[in-house]
Structures are given as structure tokens and as C-alpha cells.
Amino acid sequence: MRTGLRVRELTAPARGAVSVLEVTGQGALSRVHGLVGGAELVPGALAVRRIEAERGDLLDECLVVVLSEERVELHLHGAPVLSSRVRARLGIPSATEASAIEERAAARLACAPCEAAARVLLDQVEGALRLELGLILAGDEGSAPERLRELAWRGERLRPLLRPPLIVLAGPVNSGKSTLFNALVGHERVVVDAAHGTTRDAVRERVLLGRYAVDLVDTAGERSTPEGRVGEVERAGQVLGRALRANADLVLWLAATPGEEPAGVGARTRVLRSRCDEFPSATDATSPPGIAAGPDPAGARRVVSELVHGVLELPPDPWREGEAVPFEEQDRAAIRDALRCIGQQLSWRRPLESLLVLG
Predict the structure, then answer these.
(1) Mean pLDDT, the chain cut into blocks of 10 residues (359 residues total)
(2) Residue 338, SS3?
(3) Which terminus has fewer CB within 10 Å in the chain: N or C?
(4) Residue ranges of domains in the chain, CATH in brackets
(5) Other CB atoms within 10 Å distance of the CB of residue 146
């Protein structure tokens, strides 16, 4: 069991839509809760919380994802300065300061999200990445760019295997989100009822789609909410759902009847025609895929799996025995630095040598 707290950035250390900080180790949840405050956080929780600067000013409003007592993610707005300030507020050393490649892979192996990810990490524990980097450094300089590009491509390609994508189910009330959620989870995880507004919170489960694990979230349906306390709770659930959609790798918007599609469909949103057994409609080649998760859960699971694999470009066979994979952002960054140095005719070996020495 880990005894020290560590924080590492799971996204690239550059400006972007989202930066994700992972806090791990004994007491991780307690430390994060001390930073964000509010109601108690428990494993499996998703919450939007404020992070304040030392003087009480708002630093950021982030999404907190509690994976366990010893592993919590903070989804921040993407800015290197913001990530640095949050790390400083946490008061935790970076996880990249002093652990070898094999040691880092072993630490991640203990909580591998699926079998294929475990196999990839085990290969790195046994030295696959160190061996490949050593061969590149010892090899012909002319072949280095191609080998580095191949290694960088492999790391990006398998990133969703090692860090499960966040898939959010969204749509209007009674569009079949919870029915689909249960079908994908494989049992009745959430209550399904004909009454509007049954789901008022976000419910998260890790599920397997083919060889890949994904973090699946069922969210509160969109509608005009009633007045009073019940409406306040439902509105809070809708706000959380929108925050989750903003951070999702893929949003599946369920529309049971025509006109329920979102006004604008972004690159990370796909529409599904839900409850097709109750609301059949004419289809053509351009129509969204249709599902009937209630009477045909296996068919719904197949459609969703094919859609997720296609949109996220997930290779069907991610693990190849003994293959070197840069499994963390610091590994991929070192490879990118080496390629940049080659393009600028600078010493390209130093980033790789640093990676081998420091891990």
C-alpha cells in the first residue's frame, strides 16, 4: 500500500480545454477534500467544487472524480499556471520526481483498468520501454526519428487503454438514459421509472466495452424543473451533468422522439435514437444509430461499443506481447522533446537519457 501522497498531471502540460491532476496515496481523498471543502466525498462520487486561493479568492471551479480513498482526479480548466497553483495548494510533491520507469509501471499495474492494460503495463515492468529507448540511443542516428515517431504514435494510440475514457449519457428526461446505463453495466444499477426527473444525480460505473474499460456516467435529464426543493435538487443534478459533458471524451445524447436532438452537436457528441421499440421512426443512411435497451440490452451494448470504438479510434487488439509503450505523459513528453531537438538540430539524446536515469 502506498504511504506517500503524490500528484501527477495526466494531460499534456500545455494550454487546453481541461487539465487533469491525479492525487494518489494514503490519505488522498482526505487531502483533496481539505482543498475543495463542501459535502463529504466518497469513492465513486462526482462533484463540482470550488478551489480557492490562499486569500479566499476563486482559483477554479473543477470536477472532482473520486476513484477510491487513495486515488482522486481533479479536472481543471486547462492552463499550466493553474495546475501549478493547485499543486502548490495541495502541498504534495510531483509523482515524477524520483521513480524509475519500471517502478512507475508497477504502481499503475496495481490498479490497471482492464486486462489488456495490465498486460501492457506488465511488459513495461519487465523492461520493454527501457529496452526500446536504449536501442534508439545506441542505434544509428538516421533511424532515430522514425523509431521515435513510431513510439510516440503508439503511446497516443494506447492512451485510452491505460486511462479509461469518460463517456457521459445525456438527453431529455425519459429518453432511456438509465435503461441504457443498466444495459451497459449488466445489472440494475440505477432506478428506472416512467416519472420525469427520477435521476437527479450523476451515477458512475466502470464498464468493459470490448477490450477497453470506460467510465460511464448516467446524468439527470434535461427539462424545465419544478419550483421548490425538489426542483433545486434536480437543477443541481443538471448542472453537474453539464459539467461532466464539458469534460467528457464522448457524450452520447439519447433522443427518443424527433426534436429531442441537441441544438448543436460537437465533435465529442453523438446522437442515439433511443426507445426504438416504443417510438419507431423512418431511417436512412444519415440517421443516428437506433437502440432499444429495454427489450434488447445486448443489441444496445453492441451498438454503443461499435460507436465508442469508432469515434475514439480504439484499435481492436491493443496489446502486443513485449511491445514498448510510453504509458505516462512524462514519457510521451520526453519523446516529443527528442523529436523537436532533431528538427532543430540540437542534442536529441538528452531527453531520453534523462528519462532513463530519472524514470
Answers:
(1) 69 75 90 90 89 86 91 89 87 62 90 95 96 92 94 96 95 91 86 52 89 94 63 73 89 86 78 88 78 94 96 94 94 93 88 78
(2) helix
(3) N
(4) 6-90 (3.30.1360.120), 101-158+318-358 (no CATH), 166-311 (3.40.50.300)
(5) 10
